[in-house]
Amino acid sequence: MPKMKKVGIKAPVLTAIGYLLPLVVASGLLIAIGNLTGGEDVTSLDGITVPDALTTIGVFGMGLLPSFIAGYIAYAIADRPGLAPGFLMGQVASFLGAGFLGGLIGGIIGGYIALFFETYLKVPKWAQALMPMMIIPTLTAIIAGLIMVFVLGGPIAALTAGLTAFIKGLDQSQKFAYGFILGFIQHLDYGGAISKVPNLICDGMMADGIYGPEAVKVLGSMVPPFGVTLALLLSKAIHKPIFYKEEIENIKVAFPMGICMITEGVIPIAMNDLVRTIISTALGDAVCGAIAFSMGVESMVPSGGMFVVPAMKNPGWALVALAAGSCVTAIMLVLLKKKIDPAMEKKVEKEEEVDLSGLSFS
Amino acid sequence: MKIVGVCACCSGIAHTYMAKKAIVNAAEAMGDEIHMETQGTIGAEDELTANQIKEADCVLLCIDVHIEGMDRFKNKKVMKISTDLAIKAPKQIIAKIHRELEKAI
């Protein structure tokens, strides 16, 4: 008896996000440019202007999100035969009003059903060519589609609607608290696997029309790199060296990366002094998130760093939040980090011991 | 020892390349011949050749996501880790590969 290969859920979801990002960024920017130049979402070609066209195309792109997430999750689980039924499940989710969350669940269900057929369904040799082409996609689409329509669609749609209503109903002080928490967890590991979870939740809310958390995500991603840069300047100003020469070189790279919303540049600096750095950047992010969310900063673009700030709602407050967060991070770093000998090139490198006993060849 | 592998992370911008750098440095420091392909958001770079794969003693995948071309590694010894681990402990991983390969012989 063949066994179904182990794929889990995390890797497929991460795969889908990877495919999703360029679509969301392009569509978000189209909407933002269209809106800023006075365009709106239109449904007919009568009297359409260039800004109208841009906004409308962007909205089409956002409409593809549930399908993209479902399609590529199913693809990552079941390979090519999963792609078609996965995309279909996304369309079903859109139709049911189950949005992003529906696409996510639909993709997982579709992918695993397709994988099940790939593994266990045996057909005569002459029909084998039809398996990836016709049999798996059709059977998967029927079963997963019926499950989505008659079983899961309703509850997921209700959940999505409930979440939307909940966030829209928050008052300012509640928003401050939620923004603080959101900011705190958003970039804990600087763009690594932990931060992808809250990132995904924000992307999902954006796809369903709630744009505040996405702004927290975008702004927060820049706080760690800006914060360490400020900390470097501050440490020089008060003559308390806290970074080694090599780290200073890293900061010079991390800053421009940060402008483009790539937080990962901070990792080499954080690695040398993990606990102090994470506390400092997470608190800075939390302050940034609290200010941005409570002041109604919203972003329809999920990526792009400083370049999308002008396209945000309330960009002034976005800058205030960013500056406040970066200052908090910088001050915390300068206070928390130990004074070092500035002549030293770098911290003596030693790998942290990790348990690799579970690793083996397969 | 000859090692080939693939690095791929979720957004395909940073961890992919950091993992590659860490692993390649660690392997070369131990005198191994290593070829790592990256599958980032830009697509595949430094693609492995059929010959490199054929001659390799093992395959090291530093991946968080589904990658293209898994069928190339059929019948090879494959070790799979996350990009995070590759960045955090590259030397220990290469040492572990050496130990496992020696055990197999």
Structure description:
The complex is a heterodimer of chains A (362) and B (105). Chain A is mainly alpha-helical and 362 residues long. Chain A folds into two domains: 10-168, no CATH class; 172-336, no CATH class. Chain A is built from 13 helices and no strands. Chain A starts with 9 loop residues before the first helix and ends in a 26-residue tail after the last helix. With 105 residues, chain B is α/β, with parallel strands linked by helices. Chain B has a single domain (2-104), classed as 3-Layer(aba) Sandwich (Rossmann fold). Chain B is 40% helix and 27% strand. Chain B has a five-stranded mixed beta sheet. The mean pLDDT of chain B is 92. Chain A binds chain B through residues 7, 10-12, 14-15, 17-18, 21-22, 75-76, 191-193, 196, 257, 262, 264-265, 267, 271, 351-354, 356, 359-362, and chain B through 9-15, 18, 41, 58, 63-66, 77-82, 84-85, 87-93, 96, 100, 104.
| Main β sheet profile of chain B | 5 strands, mixed
Strand line-up across the major sheet of chain B: 3-2-1-4-5
Biggest beta sheet attributes of chain A? none
Annotation field: number of helices of chain A: 13
Quickly name the level 1 CATH class of chain B: Alpha Beta
- Largest interface, C-beta closer than 8 angstroms, per-chain residues: A-B, 31 and 32 residues
Number of domains of chain A: 2
Count of alpha/pi helices of chain B: 4
Note the overall shape of chain B. globular
Overall tally of structural domains of chain B = 1
Structural class estimated from helices and strands of chain B = alpha/beta
Tell me the Rg of chain B in angstroms: 12 Å
| CATH architecture assignment name of chain B | 3-Layer(aba) Sandwich
Structural class of chain A: mainly alpha
Element string of chain A (H = helix, E = strand): HHHHHHHHHHHHH
Spans where pLDDT lies below 50 across 5 or more residues of chain B: none
Number of strands of chain B: 5
* N- to C-terminal distance of chain B: 13 Å
Oligomer: heterodimer
